[in-house]
Amino acid sequence: MDTATLHHPLSTDQPPQLDVVAMTKRFGSFTALDQVSMTLRPGTLHALLGENGAGKSTLVKCVMGFYHPTVGQIVIDGQPQTINSPKDAHACGIGMVYQHFTSVPAMTVAENLVLSRYDSKTLINWKQELDELRTFMANAPFNVELETPVGQLAAGQKQKLEILKQIYLKSRLLILDEPTSVLTPDEADEVLGLLKAEVSQGHLSVLLITHKFREVQAFADEVTILRRGQLAGQGQVQDLSIEAMAEMMLGQERQQKSVVKTSADTQTPVLEVIDLHANKDNWLPAVKGVNLRVHTGEIVGIAGVSGNGQREFVECLSGQRLPVSGERRVNGEPYTATRAEMAKHSVYALPEEPLKNACVPTMSVAENMALRTFDRPPQAKWNLLLMLKAIRHAATGLVKTFSVKTPSVETPISHLSGGNVQRAVLARELSAHEVRLLIAANPSFGLDFAAVDFIHDMIVAARNRGVAVLLVSEDLDELLTLADRIIVMSDGEFVYESAIADVDLKTIGQRMAGH
Q1: If you write DSSP's letter for every residue of 60-77 in order, what string do you get?
Q2: Reduced to 3 states, what is the DSSP secondary structure of residue 453?
Q3: DSSP secondary structure string for all residues of 129-173
């Protein structure tokens, strides 16, 4: 491989054309993708839309060589290709930017770029490499400081590095999986705008997997929409309205989202946080002396870009992290987030990444739904068979009430789509007779619109029943729709607070960006 040519960010060659032809992928008796065809033309930005479980990830994993299609072909520039691995995809000029960062935090940007190469050099001439990397960075769509350790980069810079890695590898067709989920709205527009400029100049083609119609309308040339593993629609974005795209994706006309809130007669404090400090996993400060009060019948929204202390703050309230100092109170009593205290005070949580933080992936849907109640009547019985019967009976009712799509309550929860895992956790947390405090962290991240609407309705219904809700979200639109009061968290501190009726969006954007 010629490293001299490798490091030029973008050559003048036209990107390849990608055709997915009548692709079907089956897993046993389950058909994840059914006769789907798609064309990504050179020099275009093509959006891929669909609900969770619609087949987007399956299609992309077939293109990247993680899966082998059961039927169908991948055609590059008119030539059928057999792609058995991401390395084979790279040889065809295809690179993927994943939803989660893949760089090594302790290594510098320069080291990560060199590490990403497919060559097998045992000795590296760092003077030559750095000279070539500086040339590369000077001509790249955006700039990231080469000498900085990746762990010190903000989320927006880390995402730019992931994209730069693929350009550095001379990938001419980029697949981006929800690339703006960790960015502020301004950063998202900057990154997609700069990529769109490269696309418009014919340097790149981009396949953008996104849930945000605004991004599709603002940046995409064409769109492919999947529903239940089948092709639901395709076309030029300029010819399609949001309503038309949503109808294709959901199979029905989508109504404009609105929530109905009732007015509470009185509000009493449920959660109080006083001068709370907490550290990150590396012992650096994450939460820096925050104060908060959440009342009955109120949704308090915490806004902010990922990595500004929200995760650590939520973990302090849900028993997953010990604070360094400060006071936590629930219903006027000291609260240390033990399981017993959460049960006593009726505190329930809907954490982000529920498969990682709220479920045991290998256990069944029924067993996961019983994690809060297995040691309480009527499930706690001296007879194991009666206990298991009670657990299954309870889960069957919750699956029906919360519309969890699962083959059975005995199915391992890891086999469910993201939206249905979230529904299952929500069913467990909200099915208690009396919920006083609900802590929800990014509850609709990566979910389809039907699942998002359902979760939003459940949260607002809980609020209307008098539940105090702390809603932490990186989706500002979600907070503006649901919250009664909004707080912005930046660099571990609360830097803005307003009643939802009085919010200043420009100020919120500036505070989220750290200004």
Answers
A1: HHHHHTSS--SEEEEEET
A2: helix
A3: HHHHHHHHHHHSSS---TTSBGGGS-HHHHHHHHHHHHHHTT-SE
> What span, in angstroms and rounded, lies between the C-alpha atoms of 250 and 450?
8
Contacts 24+ apart (CB under 8 A), 267-270: 267/295, 267/296, 267/297, 267/298, 268/295, 268/296, 269/293, 269/294, 269/295, 269/332, 270/294, 270/295, 270/296, 270/330, 270/331, 270/436, 270/437, 270/468
The torsion angle over the Cα atoms of residues 252, 253, 257 and 263, rounded to 10 degrees, is: -80
Q: What is the pLDDT of residues 273-327, one digit of tens each?
A: 999 999 988 788 899 999 999 999 999 999 987 778 999 999 999 998 999 999 9
Shortest CA distance to 95 belongs to which of 242, 222, 205? 205
Would you call 338 exposed, middle or buried from its count of C-beta atoms within 10 A (0-12, 13-18, 19+)?
exposed
Q: Are 177 and 98 in contact (CB under 8 A)?
A: yes
* DSSP letters for 403-419: T---S-TTSBGGGS-HH
**All residues at 6 or more sequence positions from 361 whose CB lies less than 8 Å from its CB, including other chains:** 355, 412, 413, 414
Dist CA 420 CA 450 (whole Å): 11
Q: How far apart are CA 460 and CA 261, in angstroms?
A: 7
Task: Tell me the C-alpha distance between 191 and 117, whole Å.
Answer: 23
Q: Any bridge partners for residue 496, and if so which? A: 488
- Kindly give the pairing relationship between strand 333-334 and strand 325-330: antiparallel
pLDDT digits (tens, 9 = 90+) for 415-462: 888 778 888 988 888 776 688 999 999 888 766 667 788 889 989 999
Q: Which domains does the chain have, with CATH numbers?
A: 3-250 (3.40.50.300), 269-512 (3.40.50.300)
- Alpha-carbon distance 345 to 358, whole Å? 19
Report d(CA 199, CA 388) in Å as an integer.
Answer: 57
**Strand 45-50 relative to strand 30-40: parallel, antiparallel, unpaired?**
unpaired
Exposure string over 398-410, b if 16+ CB within 10 A, otherwise e: bbeebebebeebe
Between CA 180 and CA 415 the distance in angstroms is: 26
pLDDT band at 157 (very low <50, low <70, confident <90, very high): confident
